[in-house]
Amino acid sequence: MVKKFFSLTKIILGLALLVLLVWLYRADFGQGRQIDLGITFSQKYAEELNLDWREVYLAILDELKVKKIRLVAYWDLLEEEPGKYNFSDLDWAINQAVLNQAEVILAIGQRVPRWPECHWPDWSFTLSQSERERFIKGMITAIVNRYKETAAITAWQVENEPFLKIFGQCPKPDLDFYRSELELVRALDSRPVIVTESGELSTWLRAAYLADEVGVSVYRITWNKALGYFYYPLPPAYYYLKAWLVRHLSPVENVFVSEMQMEPWLPMIVLNTPLGDQYHSMDLAKFRKNFLYANRTGLSPIYFWGAEWWYWLKEQGDDSIWRAAVQIFNSQD
Questions:
Q1: Which of 85, 87, 127, 225 has a Cα-to-Cα distance from 283 of 20 to 30 A?
Q2: Is residue 3 part of a domain?
Q3: What's the domain range around 176?
């Protein structure tokens, strides 16, 4: 009798666990929530696609009517010569955001969005580590002081996924130096400081103990030499529950998607990859699917990654994703 009771209990618990897992896999944590959308824009990536980056940026503002933008301050573009800054391009981009009443997150530091992640000026490669760090802090100081009176800038993102060791052409992460960068930015301005993490490969807690806000990447399909294309079989609940843990185990209240994959992940650059191969990891159906997936995480805002590619694709004669993006962003309240 006792054995039967325990056997029945195990069956009931097993079924309950199965039901819970199925529910978690299918749950929509964004239902009934206001999910705001934004875009990350990279001047360098637009230029890599042989596009007029200003034209692309204006199309994002005018046609998509994006009101949340993550812009990138590239060290190698700002300081082509030691101590001599050229802010003309970044000034223009920020001014256009102001004119369009868009909010800006500005990513600053040596490691910022887009390959190779660490965007060093040529002259900095021969510097010692201490000399390079001095110039990095000088660059950060110059950026924050220049734009801290710009109300459109809502937060500073200091470095991009600074703890991620397996991606990018960057030196080994230095936690002490990174802490000093955060302290510097906080000393210069009172706006929130964002620390970003890999959505899939981290608990996000290290970022949470350092940041005012945490941004995470969400990738559905990637490529590497060992595995080829790899699909992450993770439900939206994976991100929702990790964000819940961050909010309950750290002072951070806002966890958002700083980088939502909405473009292909390729083994070669876009211009060297046939369109058919690009569609393997991103096409209109996957674009729509990823949008719905992102909403189901319940995280907000969500910054789409790949607008430059949508525009490039439109220039190749396929405007389906661009039109879908226009529809999505124009439907925002």
A1: 225
A2: no
A3: 30-330
